[in-house]
Amino acid sequence: MGLTLDLSAVISTTLEGILYGFSVFMFGVTMYILKVNARRLDSGVNLKMVAMSCLLLVCSTAHMIIDIVRTCRGFVSERDTFPGGPVAFFAQPSESTFVAKNAVYTVQTVLGDGILIYRCYVVWQSWLIIAFPLLLLVWIAVAGILCVHSAAVVPHGAGTVFLTDVGRWITAFYSSTLATNLIVTILLGYKIWTTNRRVAKLRQGSLLPVVRVIADAGILYSVILTAALACFVQKSNGQYLVLDMVTPIISITFYMVIIRVGLADSHRSTDPGSSSYAHQHTMGQGIGSRGGAADTRGQAVAMNRLPVKVHVTKVYETDGSTTFDNDTGSDTDRKGTSVLDVSHAV
């Protein structure tokens, strides 16, 4: 006996509620870390991170409310009036709550993927690198809009999402956002890993924990998207369960990166003898030379952007010798330097 639509509605709403509650808790922790970090660094609160966190919370909250209303309508208010009962109610693609929840999911997916692409740009500092992911993001938005529109115009009784034109747009939407997440996560991890190999010979510490933080978030999101796509291709009602779980998970993956970095930074700040984590966020690469003498400088990331605290080091190469000293200069003093900025990436 397969999973019926009315049973899947109950299970999916319950699972979403659990994950939503966890995401709300993580939102509170994220706000606390951003506040503490601003106080520690004697700077203003990172408004960009606050705004992104709040937008994701609004989207997941709206989706949760719509699912509660949908469940109540299907099992209570329209149980005896909707033709076919609760099973037909939850199977109808053009039902208003189904259209609304998918519209919210589309907005949150575009927002989450956009944040990931922005992190990739900050690390690479190249529009060329993110050109293809940006095209994918545009296609995700288009596919999401067409998905919502095609669902809204399905005649009553025409069939489920598996039997209508909605299916092909849902498949395209899932595939595109999965591809975007995998590509951008790999680009982020590769850039930080290659930088770690370059600076490993110059100083102690490793950037690999940063790669793990980013990879964990990417893997979590990729796994849930793969499950959703697999269920949909197999025309399984389990895709409704996964779909409702994706929305809070998008928020969770965003919060977990900030929280893990913030907790590690707090631990390091309370342990003066621990400096390995600070090294994870100090990355620089020198490019070019003038008159045969290279001036390669490693610059710390701009820490007013994210809750990470770093030690800063300059590396000078002159006449074959290499020296290190502390860097407290401004950005205007760092001409001719290519900097890998990890603060936005994590």
UniProtKB/TrEMBL annotation:
Residues spanning the membrane: 17-34, 46-66, 128-152, 172-193, 213-233, 239-259
Superkingdom of this protein's organism: Eukaryota
Positions of the UniProt region annotated as Disordered: 270-294, 321-346
Compositionally biased region (Polar residues): 271-283
UniProt keyword annotations, A-Z: Membrane, Transmembrane, Transmembrane helix
Name listed for the protein in its UniProt record: Uncharacterized protein
Originating species: Pycnoporus cinnabarinus
Lineage: Eukaryota, Fungi, Dikarya, Basidiomycota, Agaricomycotina
